Amino acid sequence: MNINFIPVTKENREQVLALQLLPHQQGYIETVAQCLSEAKRYRVWRPVGIYDEHTLIGFAMYGFFFWEYLPKGRLWLDRFLIDYHYQGKGYGKTALQKLLDRLEQEYHKKDIYLSVTPGNEVAAHLYQTFGFQFIGEKDIHNEDVMRRKTPQNPLR
After folding, report:
1. Chain CA centroid to CA 69, Å
2. Catalytic pick from 86, 91, 113, 127?
């Protein structure tokens, strides 16, 4: 696998919008269209296509929010999905590890936050294997917040 991340642009937007989840997964994450609409309204979001070489296999969206979480801000991995055609083939774990590495490097080893819809045990387990832990908070959508402390972060 050669996983890479390419920003969503007008050139790949339609292909990214065509990504799909399995029917039972659809209530656990916003649609890609909803994500892109939110990213258009809030420029802090960074929507990216997840590619294996040149094949689009998924989507992620992340961003750093300073003013909402003073004094340190929070780095959010807000969306992460693998198209159902590519699930069960190891792409999720590989892509998530590469994305976490990218976020730690791009944002200077800040802790990473995400939220999980209650009942989405598969996603919660995946995130826990990467060091995320529930912190007892709910986000604005009443989802459970998880945090991954970055070991090299001296400012925690």
Report:
1. 19
2. 127
